[in-house]
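Input record, target 12 of the design panel.
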């Protein structure tokens, strides 16, 4: 049973009485995150990694301390394996440009699940065009399940890279990454995991998953926008060329060329987002204080309550599994004869924030023959009362569209 009201920790949710259930797009920020970023600018604002005066040293310390927090959060072996980027998209592009484009060739295959966010499809299409490789899609069942037959057909001796999300941003299903990793490594390929939708909701151990690369965004786990993470196995990162070149990512420069800096700085060109890193570290600390056991329990209760409510409403169809435990807080649905954009507008008039459209997953929705949905996505700070208001608003949509029911 949900008891504590975590909304008290979030300034926006105190000043703005909106019912915010678009958390899969971006999460709200607790006061500790806002304060951490503010404190960096008030107390440590200088260019990190470049100065030997106290302010710059303090900025460097804050930035590198954040890297250690991330390392521990995902159980990486070393800070060298933690690359700070802007977001999941940039992290995945880094792997595509730096690893895939330097390792793939004509005749090679990249396997990508059909349920991926565009950010985990387009980089591989680009890499395929540049190298002559082929992108092969792993189709799922309607509930998001990837079968053994699909793996057997889609992962073979030609496969050199497999890109897959740990959690679908439309279906909410959790993919068996550890199992997939074994299949991928058995054919000598590498696995790239999009953890944008999993990192906020469940513990991640990159060593247990045996992920070669794993990416996530700060803003989805209550950290600042503009800070993301790429984890990569040290041996793979060592052999990869830089994604971008410029300041700080070098050891030395001559008029003819350069010697790159050691990991992780080889991949962090230019002035870094040290304040964002400090905010991300605060968000992770906040999550650790609450604990994933509590987070998962609360979000499952919210999801179950929402799905039970929607099941009682005529003309409403939830996409994906019938089991709330297979949704990770994500409930995408359609309403007969009402476009999701209209659903979203009506709900916005009720003070409820949901997402409508293809959710940057057009191949999945085309495959499912749904094309557009309305998506509610819950976080542990949502409440049962908010879910009730959401269900009531959905129940009134068709009547307000003039259908009389």
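The sequence produced for target 12 reads:
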């Amino acid at each position: 049973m949900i008891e504590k009201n975590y909304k008290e920790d979030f300034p926006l949710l105190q000043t703005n009485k909106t019912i915010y259930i678009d958390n899969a797009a971006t999460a709200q920020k607790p006061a500790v995150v806002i304060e951490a970023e503010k404190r960096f600018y008030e107390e440590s604002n200088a260019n990190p990694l470049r100065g030997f005066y106290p302010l710059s040293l303090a900025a460097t310390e804050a930035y590198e301390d954040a890297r250690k927090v991330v390392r521990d959060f995902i159980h990486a072996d070393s800070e060298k394996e933690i690359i700070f980027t802007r977001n999941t998209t940039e992290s995945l592009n880094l792997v595509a440009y730096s690893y895939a484009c330097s390792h793939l060739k004509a005749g090679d295959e990249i396997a990508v699940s059909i349920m991926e966010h565009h950010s985990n499809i387009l980089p591989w299409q680009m890499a395929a065009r540049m190298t002559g490789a082929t992108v092969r899609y792993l189709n799922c069942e309607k509930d998001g399940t990837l079968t053994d037959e699909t793996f057997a057909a889609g992962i073979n001796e030609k496969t050199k890279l497999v890109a897959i999300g740990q959690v679908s941003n439309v279906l909410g299903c959790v993919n068996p990454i550890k199992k997939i990793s074994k299949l991928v490594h058995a054919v000598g390929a590498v696995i790239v995991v999009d953890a944008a939708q999993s990192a906020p909701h469940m513990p991640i151990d990159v060593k247990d998953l045996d992920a070669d690369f794993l990416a996530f965004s700060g803003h989805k786990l209550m950290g600042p926008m503009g800070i993301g993470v790429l984890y990569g196995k040290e041996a793979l990162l060592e052999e990869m060329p830089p994604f971008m070149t410029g300041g700080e990512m070098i050891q030395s420069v001559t008029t003819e060329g350069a010697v790159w800096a050691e990991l992780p700085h080889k991949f962090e060109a230019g002035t870094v987002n040290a304040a964002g890193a400090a905010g991300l570290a605060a968000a992770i600390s906040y999550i650790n204080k609450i604990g994933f056991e509590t987070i998962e329990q609360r979000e499952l209760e919210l999801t179950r309550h929402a799905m039970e409510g929607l099941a009682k409403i005529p003309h409403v169809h939830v996409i994906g599994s019938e089991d709330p435990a297979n949704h990770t807080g994500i409930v995408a649905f359609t309403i007969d004869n009402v476009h999701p954009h209209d659903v979203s507008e009506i709900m916005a008039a009720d003070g409820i924030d949901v997402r409508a459209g293809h959710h940057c997953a057009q191949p999945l929705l085309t495959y499912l023959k749904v094309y557009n949905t309305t998506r509610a996505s819950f976080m542990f700070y949502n409440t049962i009362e908010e879910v009730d208001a959401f269900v009531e608003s959905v129940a009134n949509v068709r009547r307000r569209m003039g259908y009389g029911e």
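The domain at 291-400 is CATH 3.90.1150.10 (Aspartate Aminotransferase, domain 1).
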